[in-house]
């Protein structure tokens, strides 16, 4: 699992004073998914404020348009597309089999990550 993530550029070996617990999850497909418990990091991370879309307003806008086509986007691995700043990577460290690794992109479980996803971009939502 870690070798695959390392070859994909998702994790890399690191030297860091930080460490978060990991929870490998066995999926029904037989594969493993790496999850990292970032609750301690989230507790000391200042919150970001972002405008949360009003779901009723969005629904009204969709229903009032006479569009013939709507699109859905699979964002299953969207968080892996948000790069972490090099100076922050040490804080995202974890240990696997006595080797310390860190994330290259962000990952699910990091409190501020959703503020950086592309669907908040007006060019993607058509607003702006």
From TrEMBL:
One of its GO terms (molecular function) is RNA-DNA hybrid ribonuclease activity. It holds the Pfam family RVT_1. InterPro entries: DNA/RNA_pol_sf, Rev_trsase/Diguanyl_cyclase, RT_dom, Viral_Replic_Matur_Polypro. It is an enzyme of class 3 (hydrolase). Residues 109-128 are annotated as: Disordered. Gene3D superfamilies: 3.30.70.270, HIV Type 1 Reverse Transcriptase, subunit A, domain 1. Its EC number is 3.1.26.4. Residues 25-97 form the Reverse transcriptase domain. Coiled coil: none annotated. Belongs to the beta type-B retroviral polymerase family. HERV class-II K(HML-2) pol subfamily. This is ribonuclease H. It comes from Hirundo rustica rustica. The lineage of its organism: Eukaryota, Metazoa, Chordata, Craniata, Vertebrata.
């Amino acid at each position: 699992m870690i070798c695959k993530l390392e070859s994909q550029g998702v994790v890399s070996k690191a030297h860091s004073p930080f460490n978060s617990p990991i929870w490998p999850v066995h999926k029904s497909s037989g594969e493993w998914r790496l999850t990292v418990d970032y609750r301690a990091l989230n507790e000391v991370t200042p919150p970001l404020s972002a405008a949360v879309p009003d779901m009723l307003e969005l629904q009204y806008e969709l229903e009032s348009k006479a569009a013939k086509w709507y699109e859905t986007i699979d964002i299953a691995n969207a968080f892996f597309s948000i790069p972490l700043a090099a100076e922050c990577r040490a804080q995202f460290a974890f240990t696997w089999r006595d080797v310390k690794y860190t994330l290259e992109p962000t990952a699910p479980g990091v409190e501020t990550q959703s503020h950086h996803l592309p669907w908040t971009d007006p060019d993607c939502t058509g607003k702006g």
